[in-house]
């Protein structure tokens, strides 16, 4: 029986100068031996600035757990950009991402994605997932931080009669609140799910986590629940400080690395040696962002709260740590690309 390699060589003889894979993609756009792809099956508006994009992944995709995220690649003006997005559908369901038009890539996805488009994918990742054993849960979310938690709710609430989950979600107004109608229906149908909506436009302020008053009113037994939180950095900082004081159990998912203003470092030319790519980056652009803007698939879990997933060997040059302002670096050192900018010419093993 002919080997697969021999069959591939025979096929190539008939398709040269194109590869057999090029012709296969005309029939199946997901066919690729080099890059995992997904075919967009629907684009559903959620708010004026948000959509849910469902897609059918090709071979090589691993079914996601509730709360996980995946890196999505989209081509803009001929350059492939990669970003991390939470998967908003329940475990075992076809994957989807819910995107709000903020930033270049997210805005392009929201405004330009159509049914039949092809997305570039990386397999699901992340450990912001449901506990292994059933227990009372409290979910604290704000804005688009609801997205990974919605995956958990869709997984747990309709499927478990013993579900005991309280969601306290903060948004500007009912019109800006993601999945509002679905959440109201779930709360009406399932007694184990309670929804507390906090509209800042009506209340005039955010949920106050500096003290316990707002939480005591929203969920009196919050201290007895395993808590999850996802949202803006200041919201999560306050939640972590509160739970630390109360010695409670809290799991946090961050969409951005914790970055503070620093000093020093003037930017410079960044060379990604393995990818044979060079870009100019200013002092405000992290090495991670510089690589992604150049179309590279940079390793990162920072936006999802997974620290040190982006570390990359430094071959030459120095970098500035945006958290402290410290300029450092010697050949062979591992640098966190999500919180490092170029301090002059930099070469990375990426």
UniProtKB/TrEMBL annotation:
Molecular function, one GO term: metal ion binding
Keyword Magnesium assigned: no
Gene3D superfamilies referenced in this protein's UniProt entry, alphabetically: 3.10.20.30, Nucleotide-binding domain of ferredoxin-NADP reductase (FNR) module, Translation factors
Any single Pfam family the record assigns to this protein: Fer2
InterPro entries: 2Fe-2S_ferredoxin-like_sf (IPR036010), 2Fe-2S_ferredoxin-type (IPR001041), Beta-grasp_dom_sf (IPR012675), FAD-bd_FR_type (IPR017927), FNR_nucleotide-bd (IPR039261), MRET (IPR050415), OxRdtase_FAD/NAD-bd (IPR001433), Riboflavin_synthase-like_b-brl (IPR017938)
2Fe-2S ferredoxin-type domain location: 268-350
Domain FAD-binding FR-type: 33-131
Required cofactor(s): FAD
Alphabetized CDD domains for the sequence: fer2, FNR_iron_sulfur_binding_2
The keyword Metal-binding belongs to this UniProt entry's keyword annotation: yes
PANTHER family: NADH OXIDOREDUCTASE HCR
Name the UniProt record assigns to this protein: Oxidoreductase
Originating species: Kocuria turfanensis
């Amino acid at each position: 029986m002919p080997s697969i390699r021999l069959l591939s060589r025979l096929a190539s003889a008939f398709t040269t100068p194109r590869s057999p894979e090029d012709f296969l993609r005309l029939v199946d756009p997901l066919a690729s031996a080099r890059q995992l792809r997904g075919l967009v099956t629907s684009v559903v508006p959620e708010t004026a600035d948000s959509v849910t994009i469902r897609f059918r992944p090709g071979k090589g995709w691993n079914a996601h757990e509730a709360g996980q995220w995946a890196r999505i690649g989209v081509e803009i003006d001929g350059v492939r950009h990669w970003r991390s997005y939470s998967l908003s559908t329940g475990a075992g369901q076809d994957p989807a991402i819910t995107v709000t038009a903020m930033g270049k890539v997210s805005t392009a996805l929201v405004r330009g994605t159509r049914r039949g488009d092809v997305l570039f994918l990386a397999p699901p990742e992340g450990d912001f997932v449901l506990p292994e054993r059933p227990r009372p849960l409290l979910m604290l979310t704000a804005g688009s931080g609801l997205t990974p938690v919605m995956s958990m709710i869709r997984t747990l609430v309709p499927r478990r009669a013993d579900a005991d989950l309280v969601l306290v979600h903060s948004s500007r107004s009912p019109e800006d609140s993601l999945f509002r109608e679905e959440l109201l229906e779930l709360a009406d149908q399932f007694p184990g799910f309670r929804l507390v909506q906090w509209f800042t436009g009506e209340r005039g302020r955010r949920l106050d986590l500096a003290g316990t008053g707002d939480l005591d009113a929203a969920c009196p037994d919050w201290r007895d629940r395993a808590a999850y939180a996802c949202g803006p950095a200041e919201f999560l900082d306050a939640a972590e400080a509160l739970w630390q004081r109360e010695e409670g159990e809290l799991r946090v998912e961050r969409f951005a690395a914790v970055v503070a203003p620093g000093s020093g470092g003037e930017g410079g030319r960044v060379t990604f040696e393995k990818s044979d790519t060079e870009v100019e980056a200013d002092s405000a652009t992290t090495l991670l962002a510089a690589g992604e803007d150049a179309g590279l698939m940079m390793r990162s879990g920072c936006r999802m709260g997974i620290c040190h997933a982006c570390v990359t060997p430094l071959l030459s040059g120095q970098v500035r740590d945006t958290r402290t302002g410290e300029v450092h670096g010697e050949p062979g050192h591992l640098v966190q690309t999500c919180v490092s900018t170029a301090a002059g010419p930099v070469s990375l093993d990426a």
